[in-house]
Design goal:
It is a single chain. Strands 1-2-28-27-26-25 form a six-stranded mixed β-sheet, with no helix packed on it. By secondary structure, it is an all-beta fold. Strand 29 and strand 30 form a beta hairpin. The chain has one helix and 31 strands. It has a domain of about 180 residues.
């Protein structure tokens, strides 16, 4: 049954409702659990390796490394539709030889009727109507992934980050020709490669790309970087330029954040999801003014990966897989049997910048997408016992792994 806890925020303390102490929350009022969708080859005991999810039309898509596929969920029927797998040089890498840096698919971004999907060394292009991988754009040869991306639909430019390269870089692709037009490298002002790159977003109102940088010399636990679209388009076709030299670039320190997700909110707000790696540090979600980097709110609502804003509800949705009972980071920020996590979907009111509620989710549930038409929320998760570190997942009803469906209202 639901229980109440007090959550400490740096700006204000709020009372939040935590759903599902003894199972799924089926309250018909407000945000709630709806159902689960099974995924092929995912069952109890399996470590389900998935990444980013998106809604495109009446379908939800998310990347699935176990099945080396982009998985398609039919939203009206809330059922698994297809595992889209390429073949030959269009095949996704899958789990690969080891860590996530050498596995794929990873990020997914809707680009018209296509979905651009990050993979090892490349971006794979999926025709969402045909349900097929139709082409590939090579961005590297080093054997690590192109990860998360974002779209400037106005100018037909897609940005995707390669965070694990010796010098991290972002690739910019012309979506009309499906060719690489520019690269931006990330060596900081002290001449050192940044610690990596996370989620990015494009703001059409200001013509700026924003990207979370894992760390630089000046901001070792993260900075929000503004990349002016005009400066990107000024790079000679096929050329490369370092981010610190772009005209109009700005870097905003994020404090002790270790950033992950990023979402454009109402007005000039931009929300940053933090997943602190410092033991016992408060797990934060921070909201900045994207025009000048001013910190507007800091909420005890972090520990997630993908962060989404839904304008129909005017709320943020944070897939907080590394949330803990204390609201502070587990040992070194990682879930383990000795330092367990309690995964939740954290919902934040974007207007008041306050926490609305937290809903229990399954093991390692770090990906979220919201369908504004139906108000349904899709959250993949792994089985209760793998990876280790979620002792309460089975008791909360998340046993086998798959995709949980929630209602936004």
């Amino acid at each position: 049954m639901p229980k109440y806890i007090r959550t400490n925020a740096l700006v204000a303390s709020v009372i939040v409702l935590v759903a599902g102490c003894g199972g799924h929350d089926n309250d018909d009022n407000g945000p709630r659990y709806v159902s689960d969708i099974a995924v092929p080859n995912i069952k109890a005991g399996v470590n389900f390796s998935f990444d980013i999810g998106i809604v495109s039309g009446s379908q939800y898509f998310f990347t699935d490394r176990n099945n080396a596929s982009l998985d398609q969920i039919d939203i009206p029927s809330k059922s698994f539709a297809k595992a889209i797998q390429g073949s030959g040089n269009l095949a996704f890498t899958g789990l690969g030889p080891g860590p996530n840096s050498k596995a794929g698919p990873d990020g997914a971004t809707a680009v018209g009727n296509f979905i651009y999907v990050g993979d090892v060394n490349s971006v794979k292009i999926v025709d969402s109507t045909a349900g097929a991988v139709v082409s590939k754009i090579t961005v590297s040869t080093t054997g690590v992934r192109a990860d998360e991306g974002c779209l400037d639909a106005t100018h037909g430019t897609f940005m995707i980050s390669s965070p694990e390269e010796p010098v991290p870089f972002a690739t910019f692709i012309n979506t009309a020709t499906q060719t690489v037009v520019a690269k931006v490298t990330f060596t900081d002002s002290e001449g050192k490669p940044t610690a990596g790159l996370e989620a990015c977003r494009y703001d059409p109102n200001s013509d700026n790309f924003y990207v979370n940088v894992d760390g630089s010399t000046a901001n070792p636990h993260g900075e929000l970087v503004k990349l002016p679209g005009a400066a990107i388009r000024a790079i000679p076709n096929g050329g490369s330029q370092n981010y610190t030299t772009l005209a109009g670039v700005a870097m905003y320190g994020e404090g002790n954040c270790d950033p992950t997700g990023l979402a454009l909110g109402p007005g000039n707000d931009i929300a940053v999801g933090c997943r602190e790696g410092t033991t016992n540090a408060p797990l934060l979600m921070q909201i900045f003014d994207r025009s000048n980097g001013a910190l507007l709110a800091s909420l005890n609502a972090g520990g997630g990966d993908q962060l989404e804003y839904d304008p129909s509800t005017n709320r943020y949705y944070n897939a907080a897989s590394r949330w803990t009972a204390s609201g502070n980071a587990s040992t070194d920020g990682a879930c383990s049997n000795a330092s367990p996590c309690t995964p939740v979907l954290t919902i934040v009111d974007a207007g008041t910048r306050t926490i609305v509620t937290r809903l229990n989710t399954g093991n390692n549930a770090h990906s979220v997408a919201v369908d504004p038409a139906t108000g349904l929320i899709f959250v993949p998760y792994s089985s209760a016992t793998s990876p280790a570190g979620c002792p309460g997942c089975a008791a909360n009803g998340f046993v086998n792994g798959g995709v949980s469906v929630f209602a936004a209202k």
